[in-house]
Amino acid sequence: MSEALPICYLARHGETDWSLNGRHTGLTDLPLTERGERNARRLGERLVGIPFAKVFTSPLQRAVRTCELAGFAATAEVDRDLVEWDYGKYEGLRTAEIQAKCPGWELFRDGCPGGESPEQVAARADRVVNRLRAIKGNVLVFSSGHFLRMLAARWLGLEPATGRLFMLNTASLSALGYEHKLSQPVIRLWDDTNHVRD
User: Which of 16, 54, 94, 168 is the most exposed place for a label (fewest CB within 10 A)?
Assistant: First the structure.
């Protein structure tokens, strides 16, 4: 019997006031809402029994707190590459507000003035992918929505713009893995929120 292929689990942070209101939250370091904290604990319940060789978290408090409430603070390592997209001048704005100023704007195609381009975020995601693939065993990653969407695209070898295709809810769980061998990356699970209840 061949050895089981490793799985990389992706946990999006719990709800914040800005995620609830659709505001682009890049480097603004917001806390979780009460519901965000509750759902982070439920995310931890969902992960019970899965062995992890490594756990990584973004340095932003919404990811760190989600990691803590899910029960992984003692083993988690902070990875600065996991920080959310730097939205620059679009920080705190809703998509409709941005498109009113810049009709047709799309984050994964156009990036953000004064912030990061899709290629810059993809380069960070590529570094993360390379580190994750070097680990023998399952890995758990806590980060933010747009970065995790880019990570999924780059895991599959897709262009940065395709990250727009992978929607994610707060406190969701996703899993990246392989089909038959390490040269065949796949998405095993995406945007699972069955553990989240209001």
Answer: 94
**For helices 145-155 and 118-133, angle between their N-to-C axes, nearest 10 degrees:** 60
Amino acid at 121: V
Lateral strand order in the sheet of 185-192: 76-78, 54-57, 139-143, 8-12, 173-178, 185-192
| 146 assigned to active site | no
As a whole number of angstroms, the distance between CA 31 and CA 99 comes to 27
| Active-site option among 13, 68, 91, 116 | 13
84, 91, 116, 146: the catalytic one is 84
The answer to whether residue 63 scores a pLDDT higher than 50 is yes
Task: Say how far apart CA 93 and CA 24 lie, in whole Å.
Answer: 6
Residues 6+ apart with CB under 8 A from 122: 150, 153, 154, 160
Q: Residue 1 pLDDT > 80, yes or no?
A: no
pLDDT tens profile 149-177: 999 999 999 999 999 999 999 999 999 99
Position 4 confidence tier, pLDDT thresholds 50, 70, 90? confident
Confidence of residue 76 (pLDDT cuts 50, 70, 90): very high
**Residue 13 annotated as catalytic:** yes
What pTM value is reported for the model? 0.96
